[in-house]
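Bug report

Summary: structure tokens for Pseudouridine synthase differ between web form and batch submission.
Environment: batch mode, default settings.
Steps: 1) Submit the sequence below via batch. 2) Compare with the web form result.

Sequence submitted:
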Amino acid sequence: MSDSSEERTLEVPETLAGERVDVGLARLFGVSRTRAAELIATGRVQLDDAPASKSDRLLPGTRLDVSFPVETDPLEVVEEPVEGLHVIHEDEDLVVVDKPVGVAVHPSMGWTGPTVVGHLRAAGVRVATSGASERQGIVQRLDVGTSGVMVIAKSERAYSLLKNAFRERTVEKVYHAMVQGHPDPLQGTVDAPIGRHTSSDWRFAVRDDGKPSVTHYETLEAHRFASLLEVHLETGRTHQIRVHMQALKHPCVGDLTYGADPTLARRLRLERQWLHAVRLGFEHPGTRERVEFVSAYPEDLAHALEVVRDGQ
């Protein structure tokens, strides 16, 4: 059996002679009849090395082997090095990382892939203990499909001060986004509340009853098919830039979830939205000096931008 199972062996006592296997299993191990039936049906129960069926009858002295699957906590942090995740800066108060695409910041329901906190633990980086167990030290988030620079608190003081800085909007969060077409005006502000989409738990939309959300953008480059924008966030809602760009009818290139053209995405060999956290600036919680950290475009985004620049 796999490492995710607990093996238990008992000899059938005289008191259970003639009982069905599911009944005996429930009594011997203190599980419900339903649970016993599930274990039998999935081949986790054997009588003298032979697979058991729930209608089999127990004989005294028979060896009963049961493999109980170990229930894992979906929010448990798995210590696992993440390829492509680089530490940009580390000191006694904080660690700044360059997060690759396809990596979550912390464990969550339904996510079984790599995480930033799992990588840091595997690397022996001790972070602040403030916050829920699966996201200790986390003061900001980046979507799984978004790459770039982010900060994690190592000291409790840093956690408190950085959380407050994000709350008070004194942190400069700068993203670059390639969007379809050309926004009009070329620079502006989107002030539109965001809430969960009415027909999907994992999508978001501009909604009158949503949370206040403010995005500032300016066009850096305008090309035939798309524009490269610099985006400054006042707020930090989930999928904020992606939702606001869709609301402008200029979705992030490659963002099929929010209305991007799949043909253009294929042409640019993009398998995710063109969105990258390029710069992060804040007052260092230890030195109280203003610091700034940057992240270069990863290979897939850099390639897509070159193709767009060439007008292909």
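Above is the batch result. After comparison, the two runs are identical; trailing whitespace caused the diff. The longest helix spans residues 156-167. The chain has a mean pLDDT of 92.
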